[in-house]
Amino acid sequence: xxxxxxxxxxxxxxxxxxxxxxxxxxxxxxxxxxxxxxxxxxxxxxxxxxxxxxxxxxxxxxxxxxxxxxxxxxxxxxxxxxxxxxxxxxxxxxxxxxxxxxxxxxxxxxxxxxxxxxxxxxxxxxxxxxxxxxxxxxxxxxxxxxxxxxxxxxxxxxxxxxxxxxxxxxxxxxxxxxxxxxxxxxxxxxxxxxxxxxxxxxxxxxxxxxxxxxxxxxxxxxxxxxxxxxxxxxxxxxxxxxxxxxxxxxxxxxxxxxxxxxxxxxxxxxxxxxxxxxxxxxxxxxxxxxxxxxxxxxxxxxxxxxxxxxxxxxxxxxxxxxxxxxxxxxxxxxxxxxxxxxxxxxxxxxxxxxxxxxxxxxxxxxxxxxxxxxxxxxxxxxxxxxxxxxxxxxxxxxxxxxxxxxxxxxxxxxxxxxxxxxxxxxxxxxxxxxxxxxxxxxxxxxxxxxxxxxxxxxxxxxxxxxxxxxxxxxxxxxxxxxxxxxxxxx
Length: 490
Known about the structure:
Shape: globular
Structural class: mainly alpha
Largest sheet: 2 strands, antiparallel
Radius of gyration: 22 Å
Strand order of the largest sheet: 1-4
Low-confidence stretches: none
Mean pLDDT: 87
Number of helices: 22
Helix content: 55-70%
């Protein structure tokens, strides 16, 4: 006879399974939890990196974020709010869309805002632009336009997006680990192996060891292979730093750690400061730089957010085996709504636009198939608000091996593209190679779309192009011309 406690536990387990459709998607609660943890460890660096990007730059008023003159205070505030927004919107993604996709402050966009936008206005004005951009995208989602655009994309181009992202995240992995770097000499190649063509430093060794552990365990079908690899590499990194005092990577110390030095912190907890929430000025930019310039900036932010998420959710859905016959993930509309809300939420909290993270693929590689994994990841982000010092224990070099393996798994989808058909093969090729080469998902998607429409036109097949593909391709032409167009207007 079972006890009341056991019956209650089974009831709760059954509710969780039913709510997230865990069994229906061929997963288990433990697998979802592992996947959520792996995703967090793989992208936890954003809690450290976002403050270093936007918290150390003065705005047009000569002040750091929060209106102060001390970058250390700015960095601390940004770190807490970065974790808060990432946690809330990622949990929202899990509960509303039931999709294993995590969100956080978007890299690339945060740098663009910090160095190109905020220099012309106050930080609050720049965040007002982000809030507006998110609202516009939300309207496009609610009217069905964003989903319609996604469904108008040919299936093989969707596959190319997934493959390109796979190559992209593998490239991110080897670059962030210092395995591949930009050479010091301006006359050298764009990238090279290690330093001067040779691997240098203990951190790179940690990356190699972590990668060997992960692929060995994965090949032997060990459950939790990616999580075990990350944790093992982190422990080894802490030991190595304690013995050899490697230090941070600098020009004088090229063999150092890439972002955070893996050592046990003196303080395990920190008090969250949420002063940045609500620090935005919705229409301040229009007064500072004018209507035309503000609209161009909003358009640039919007197009990048719009298509980055489309590519990311396609890639995650494909890796998880969740796409339907048309290459569409389940609950697409809900995914896009949450992503749009996240963009505005990032602006409202002064930490830059939040968007979907392709690092979520690492959790999918661990077995995540439902939104429960996102809930776990989001909870970890919220916890990191008070244990932010502990997050720095996981260095780039321990987390990035997961991206290399997942990149390989996503690249396997390339066999779904008909490379004998030039009309689709060349746009797919541009989509795949330009994502890593330009370090931009949107650039790869845009090049693929524009070249696809162009080839159909020159071959006399313009009628087969979906009307929305015409519209989107025209927008991408404007997007690629935004730099010279902006210079001309100013």
